[in-house]
Specification:
122 residues; mainly alpha; de novo design (two linked rop proteins); 5 helices; 80% helix
Length: 122
């Protein structure tokens, strides 16, 4: 790996963030600042913490910590998408697809986290 951009998790999390963001802007105004904001921030946290963790890869503990946050933010995003689908049926199909994609991402992030814990040398 030459860069965080080479990480599959980075590519997928950035792509999903770019799908989540415009979806949240289609929410009613009152929800754009509540659930929409929470969803945008959690989706952004997934990719941002992955990048920051990679930037600290020389320090295994820091790398692990930021990967835990990235994974947790992915799970949080799934929760927000579940709420969005339940509260706004017109967006439920898109939210459900994104929820499935985030479930796949969460598995990949967790597998990478376990790889770092077992194999990473600083």
């Amino acid at each position: 790996m030459k860069s965080y951009r080479d990480l599959n998790g980075y590519q997928l999390s950035l792509s999903l963030f770019y799908q989540v963001h415009p979806l949240t802007l289609r929410l009613p105004k009152y929800e754009c600042y509540e659930l929409g904001s929470q969803l945008r921030r959690s989706a952004d946290s997934v990719v941002t913490n992955l990048v920051e963790g990679y930037g600290r890869k020389e320090y295994k503990h820091d790398f692990i910590w930021f990967m835990i946050i990235s994974h947790s933010s992915s799970l949080e995003t799934i929760n927000h998408l579940e709420k969005l689908a339940a509260l706004h049926p017109g967006l439920s199909t898109e939210a459900s697809i994104l929820k499935e994609d985030y479930a796949i991402l969460s598995q990949k992030l967790y597998a990478f986290l376990m790889y770092i814990k077992r194999n990473w040398r600083t």
